[in-house]
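Researcher: I'd like a structural prediction for the single chain below. Treat it as a standalone chain; there are no partners to consider.
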Amino acid sequence: MPAAVLHDVLSAAARRLRDAGLDGADAAADVDVLARHVLGWDRGRLLANRRDGVPAGFLERFTDLIDRRAERVPVAYLTGSREFYGLEFEVTPDVLIPRPETELAVEAALEALAAPGASGHAVDVGTGSGCIAIAMAVTRPDVAVVAVDRSRAALAVARRNARRHRVGGRVTLVAGDLLTAFAPRRLVDVVVSNPPYVPDDSADVAPDVARHEPASALYAGPDGLDVVRRLVADAARLLRPGGRLVVEIGIGQADAVAAAAAANRASWTGVTFRPDLQGIARIAVLSRRDGGSR
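Model: Treating it as a single chain, here is the predicted structure.
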């Protein structure tokens, strides 16, 4: 009986994922990532060796990962990592998997830290894997970030990521529920957050997300804005005059966030929105009014 060829094993795995309901292109991409993860190869080596025999020890590990992916376990949880802002982050089922659109929040927060009068201090609320806080600290070696999360398991992941990227001395991890019982030693330049913003009864959540990512990082009330409204109501007291609140929001939530800012007009001069690549408002930026609530 001829030895198994790597190409045939990968093709069969892609068919398995398509049969499980994944799009063809996604199935092929996932097979590529998982095969390279098991083999420890880059994409070029995998392409060059696809017609070779299956390396020893590969099939059992790879098949297990494909079976779990067919159950819609996200690839990032299977490999244990995800790239974000050009950095590699450990991810586990205790944390939300970083998304490309969240990089827009990092960019907006870094702009706030570069504004005239900025002191180089920030707060990241609901830090999860620590991706926002750590990306900021790596990009700006003069910046210090307090990263808050109510999940101690998530904070453990963030701590390992901070050590990995050698910013543990400038990223302080705090256990807490948003900003309650939280008082910084000084007013900060920016409060940034990728909060939960999915409505509780949403039917639009992908199976990978709904079944496997932490619900506490996803769902936030009937319209998904319970946490965002709390941040809009409370964040100004941490910010210096002219400081900013930067919050990622869901599709179609811009009007409701603008209404929340208007309801707290004593704290904010207004709100602007930044679009993703599809032109959808995904990042809300609120500027603290001089003399606003504290």
